[in-house]
Amino acid sequence: MDTSRDKKLKKITRKMQTKLVILFLIIVLALVGLCGRLTYINMTNGAQYSKQILSQQQYETKTIPYQRGDIVDRNGIVLATSIKVYNLILDPKIMRSDSGKYLEPTISALCNCFGYDESEIRRIVSENSNSSYYRYEKGLTLSEIEDFLRLSEGEVKPAPLWFTNADGVAYSYHNIQGVWFEEEYQRIYPYNSLACDIIGFTNSGNVGTWGIEEYYNATLNGKDGRKYGYLNADSDIESVVQPAVDGNTIVSTIDTNIQRIVEAKIQEFQDTTGSANTAVVVMNPNNGEIYAMASYPFYNLNNPRDLSAFFTEEEIEGMTDEDKLKFYYSLWRNYCISDTYEPGSTAKIFTVAAALEENIANMNKTFVCKGKLHVGGWDINCHKKYGHNKLTLKESVAYSCNVAMMELAAQTGADTFVKYQENFGVGRLTGIDLPGEASAEGLYYKAEDMKASDLATSSFGQNYNVTMIQMVAAYSSVINGGYYYEPHVVKKIANSDGNTVKEIEPILVKQTISNVTSELLVDSLESVVTDGTGRNAAIAGYSIGGKTGTAEKALKDKENYLVSFIGFSPVENPEVLIYVIVDEPNVEKQSNSSYASGLARDILEEILPSLNVHSTLEDIEPEPEPETPSEPESTPTEESTEPQFPNPSYSEEWEEPIVQAPIEESST
To answer: pTM for the whole thing?
Structure first.
């Protein structure tokens, strides 16, 4: 019986061994197959699967900020740039880790290197114990953080290298952890307020506001880079750097020297006479390049929201947010392109141009001015209320006769008059490459709506609105042979390496008048300065042409005026055009255009040599500084013995208001 049992056990054992061998072979074959399959996958799709695995690893990324492009003047002088600064970041979670061995040395280093308040640092770390990011200070320079960097990297050994806290525990500066520096760029303006109307400024995130900063924002901005850190297949730390792409540089048409002179003269005028606003544009009439553009008051581009220069502390505290926003808007907006006004007598040249082009008149055509003209049921006055008597058209320009302009416009007709207004850009955007340009659309009469009295007042620059940039563009075409160029403030765009990306070529838009008409108008505009109302703009040795303007404002109340002068030099081949606006000068009687022509003279005297415009003429004695002429209160009769115009000491001014003024001055 025992033998039978043994035989049975042996038989079972043999079967089990056989099964185990078979199972083992199956497992071996499966492993061999799996290895083969893995080898095949690795050979055919290994890279793809590696990327999938690595994509599931923990990445550490860091933004590499781009540098916003510079804004420079035409000679390469930097007007706006960006410098690298560092934000100090605290990582309270790291500082408190590993039983707090990093906390004390890190706080001690921060206080020693930066002079921070220890209790404040401890409070922040305690209140943000689970945070890995707390921005403690912004805008540190490299020199300000160098000591801390060297200390944390063990390059500097303070005395002592080890220190003991208040509890008698010793710590090493080698354990500084939980502090790092975030890089970014800070926009700065080396000349503070210089050319503020043209340059503009930036807000957080490199967002341009006003000026070139806004108009060319996308061009100035670049693209952030990235630094990626991850564990590779061998568990080693790998990093990939995608470099930042810096923004392009804007090369402007601005001449820093001319801009500085313009602003200095405006400030000098404001400090002596003053006005509600004084504005100046200087331009190359042959290609539309703006050399300078400024309006008062100026503001600091590095701190555009600083109100302390304009208000007392008590006034600032009493201002609401709405009050501040309203003031900021008026401060930052560019008067030279954004505000509209009635141009006054500077616009008479357009009336003359239309008549000459249409062969309605020539420069020898005569007019008789008796001080007023009855038009459409209204008596509309000349600025010289006892009249100029007999004048040629050229003399009418020189002495700024309103009656001659009204008669000339009546002969031209409303349709033709309006056609030339629009041809010269009235009510049209010039296309200047700055934000906020106003068009004055709707602020001038259409031919079908223009009555006889409307045509009369429009003939000498009242009852319709323009912008300064419209006037300089139009006048440039008057004096350069008739060629209307699009005004612009940028010459070129270059990349961060200085290589040219794009040249901004002058854009010739149209021809407003013929060369012959242009020559006649230039000659008559020269007579304004040599013999007429613009003598105060004369500069010894230089040939100057131009036109004065006096526009009665708003309610035509004989109190508030905008006076102006637009001039150019040299007359033989105009190289520079200047336009000066003095809005409501701070004097008892505002209607004297010599305030504007005198300021233009002071500016031209300094900028002409810098533009290599050389003195060629004999000295011309300029008109004395403005003194409002006294006139008799009684209205003279035709037999008046009052000396007849021209009068070299006379400066254009209004004596009585224009009766009808359906379109009031406004700002867009």
So the answer is: 0.82
